[in-house]
Design brief:
401 residues; alpha/beta; Metallo-beta-lactamase, Chain A; 7-stranded mixed β-sheet; 6-stranded mixed β-sheet; 13 helices; 22 strands
């Protein structure tokens, strides 16, 4: 296991997990993932972040190809979540660092995960810095991106930002840099996937943080997941993508999500889709049963409208749709146009419940929900088509504004 030099005296020593499919227990990672850690060789040798518990062997092996791990002087923990700090206990026991740096809020996370250990922990705040000899590490707190304890480390002499969870993606690859990956479409898809399932609720903080990042003299961003952005063009590109994703401006595209017992609601979903498409709004239909909720959220990144459908089941909506909307509510998407529909046999509460849930997410609801008794007939499908047309008109007007 070889380290990878990303700058003179700075090495990637992380872990690649090609089999990783369940990121943080709630989001799919179909392309695997990496836990990136970085090693600075200087008068004071510094390890910046670690890897999950059980993966410390790969980190130590890579580091040993450059320097004896026991010669580590400092450890910087930019974030205490266990995909970054899970191996910290093993690394501290092996390396016995002189100092461990965490954010002010990181003290609580550190104690929560590892107890009150007799470790040489030093809490830092935004603007604090340490000298390692030829280099300086400047700390910047990035609270709620995506934990209260999150921070980034800036090395001005190298024009390098070690950004922790910000600017990351879930990609397992032998490539360490974006320009070596040679698949721009997948790279951008994984950025959207990561942002919309991890970072989206904190979009206001992203927009406050980006100007701080842009003031730094950087030509490389090294996140703790996925590929490293090197060169001014790559740095500008990822910052631009983050700004676009965080702003959530209306996009002229729609997503129709449904579940169905006997295909009645499915038929309605496709009629809604036709109403959207035939009125100038491209759309995609996704089954909540066949698509994971994180895949649905990733699709929403490109959509300014969201339409939900479910038959009535036990006086409420089907579980897969309920799960999807609960997940979506927590991620707090903004600036969407919404709509609801569904079939029923007896009581018919589901469409109104869906309408209420979407309105509670502050979606604009330009039409009443459509419901069909038993199998949707010709008039029901016309109503579904009209629902799609109304949403399309509302969304196009928003996009023009």
């Amino acid at each position: 296991m070889q380290p990878v030099a990303i700058k003179e005296d700075i090495y990637w020593v992380g872990n690649v997990d090609y089999d990783h499919r369940d990121f943080h227990g709630y989001s799919r990672s179909p392309a695997g993932s990496t836990s990136n850690a970085y090693f600075l060789v200087d008068e004071k040798n510094v390890l910046l972040d670690t890897v999950p518990s059980g993966r410390e062997g790969s980190l130590l092996c890579r580091m040993a190809k450059t320097l004896d791990p026991e010669k580590i002087d400092y450890i910087v923990c930019n974030h205490m979540e266990l995909d970054h700090a899970g191996a910290l206990e093993a690394i501290v026991e092996r390396c016995k660092p002189e100092k461990i740096f965490v954010s002010q809020a990181g003290l609580k996370s550190l104690a929560g995960y590892f107890g009150n250990r007799d470790w040489p922990v030093h809490a830092v705040k935004s603007g604090d810095s340490i000298s390692t000899g030829k280099h300086t590490i400047v700390f910047q707190e990035t609270r709620m991106l995506h934990w209260p304890d999150s921070m980034v480390s800036y090395i001005p002499e190298k024009k390098l930002l070690i950004s922790n969870d910000i600017f990351g993606q879930n990609i397992a690859s032998s490539a360490r840099f974006v320009d070596d990956f040679n698949n721009d479409s997948e790279y951008e898809q994984r950025i959207k996937e990561y942002f919309y399932n991890i970072v989206l609720p904190y979009s206001p903080m992203v927009l406050k943080t980006l100007p701080v990042v842009e003031k730094l003299d950087i030509d490389m961003i090294a996140p703790d997941h996925g590929l490293i952005q090197r060169g001014e063009k790559a740095v500008r590109h990822i910052i631009g993508m983050y700004r676009t994703l965080a702003e959530q401006k209306p996009a002229q595209r729609a997503l129709v999500v449904y579940d169905s017992m006997w295909q009645s609601t499915r038929t309605m979903a496709y009629a809604v889709c036709s109403g959207l498409e035939e009125n100038g709004v491209p759309a995609r239909v996704m089954s909540a049963k066949l698509n994971h909720h994180s895949e649905i959220m990733t699709e929403l990144a490109d959509c300014g409208a969201f339409v939900a459908g479910s038959p009535t089941h036990n006086n409420t909506i089907l579980p897969y749709v309920a799960s999807c909307l609960t997940y979506m509510k927590g991620l707090r998407p903004q600036n969407r146009v919404g709509g609801a529909f569904g079939s029923y046999g007896w009581s018919g509460e589901a469409p109104a419940s869906l309408q209420e849930m979407l309105a509670a997410m502050k979606m604009e609801m330009p039409a009443q929900p459509v419901k069909a008794n038993w199998r949707p007939g010709k008039d029901d499908l016309k109503a579904c088509h009209a629902l799609g047309a109304t949403i399309a008109a509302t969304l196009k007007e928003r996009c023009r504004g």
